[in-house]
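Sharing in case it's useful to others searching the archive later.

Someone asked me privately for the predicted structure of HetZ-related protein 2, so I'm posting the question and my answer publicly. Question first, with the sequence:
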Amino acid sequence: MAKDLEIAQKWLERLQTDYPDASRTTHEGVVRWSVGENSDRLNQLSDRALEIVLQSMEFRYSILQQRYLGVTPDTAYQNLIRRLGGLVLLRNKIRTWVALSRDRHRSVINVVQEIVQELLNSDRYLQQQMAWISQCTRNERLRNSLLLASVEEYCLRPIRNQPLLVYRFLNYLRRSGRGGLTQFPTKDLIRLVSAEVGTPEREDSINLVDAQTLTQYEDRQAWEERQVLRLKVQQEFETYLEENVDPIAAKWLRLYLQGYTQEAIASTLEIPISKIYRLREKVGYHAIRVFALKQSPDLVSNWLETSLKDHCLGLTPTLWEQYRQSLDPQQREILDGFRSGRSVEAIARELDLKPSQVMTEWSKLYLGAHSLRNET
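And my answer, the predicted structure tokens:
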């Protein structure tokens, strides 16, 4: 059996198990949406690439299950806006903009709704998704659920360690504010660029559409790889919390990543809200100071793109230089030693320190860069 047919059959069996009361057409519609429009591509993928695609499908299905499938359209839409509005980085940016604008009566929810509506009206990817979903099923309610799940997954895609929705918000500001894309300069010339740009000799041309298609494909591949890393980090961190902290901490993490508020988590786990807040602080401490720093540093840094060797701890070149200048000579030597790939023992011998002292200093360096990155 071909890979695409085998995968589709497994998803159909899973849908029948998860939702035994749903109709056959509902099961098939969700399966078609999960597998994607060009199912033949699955037959041509390597085992590694296929694993990434399957993880991506799993991620999209989990979003659909948690907030959109089997609920009313109004509830599903509210779940989407609440989920997107709960992004801390986006919420802070919107609140700052509202505070500085003339429209101070607007709320975060209002702005998120406008951005989502603008995406549905103009974003090419979401319009392609709407066209594909209309082919997956004729059930309007199911179409609505599949579309909202697609919107959430698309808006949460990480671009340079920030959700894609944050960049769409910045585009929204440029269009809605003066001097944005909707206003043309009155004195400057406007240059129109065609799909092809000729070389000076005009014997050849560079097709911008082909370059754009290639870039979109590479971005999609990179996103799928990040999703695999994200799920792996989540699973390993949950296991770490269960074994080293408290099984309840792992349950808190799962609910938190699903978009539950602290109050909702307290109600679900039947735990006092004060204990939930202490649990959040404990999970945050272990996430940064133990799991990311000592338990699985390579896994976390590859996912966040904050490795010392390749990404300078996630700092821009300017911040990296400022950060280095703020260190004393011994700290710089330790930092350079880790960046060059030397072991803790080798660095300790060179600086006449104990390995534990080197690790203590490295912890300070890592947390210092983490704080600087978050401040900016």
